[in-house]
Amino acid sequence: MNSAAHARYSTGAIVLHWVTALLVIFMIVFGEELVEGAEHDAAAGTFLPSIHVSVGVTILVLTLLRLGWRLGHAPPPYPAGMKAWELILAKFTHLLFYVLLIAVPLTGWLAFADWVREEPAMSAVRVFGLFALPTAPLLGGEVKELHEIGSNAMMVLVILHVLAALKHQFVDGDGVFKRILPH
Predict the structure, then answer these.
(1) Any idea where the domains of the chain sit in the sequence?
(2) What are the residue ranges of helices labelled H in the chain?
(3) CATH number assigned to the domain covering 3-180
(4) How far is it, in rounded angstroms, from Cα 75 to Cα 94?
(5) Which residues contact 79 (CB under 8 A, 6 or more apart)?
(6) pLDDT tens-digit profile of 28-59?
């Protein structure tokens, strides 16, 4: 493998990154509205919550695939000129992304059980219109708060991630951003 190819993520990693990124951005912009719309508009029924749940399930599955992919495909090395604090922050950020990309959908699933208890009609929510979400244990409203905290943390992390990518592209000019761009 030549050094230019080694300086980039694999095609699989790039596809998983961008599909996940688009879905996360969709949820940041519309996720809350998909749930609240159903709470405030009976005509919306379970369609909007089904979209929310289906996208959340997709994010979780893609993240698990991405973790599996990463086990078999090492990421490209960071540029030699990166400062120690930047390396630590980059590694921590990626770890936190993985934690949130798993925790936010899981806490959403756990919170969903409580929502169905409060709103029995929500038991008709379907993942991709095909099947009901498996029943989760009732853990109380605190899980919904954890889901919201995780969602807010994800918003902040996405903003910081984009700003860091732009810094590397336009200030440092070190090619970090190009490593994840489609070929």
Answers:
(1) 3-180
(2) 3-6, 11-26, 32-40, 47-72, 84-118, 142-167
(3) 1.20.950
(4) 11
(5) 172, 174, 175, 176
(6) 999 999 988 766 666 568 899 999 999 999 99
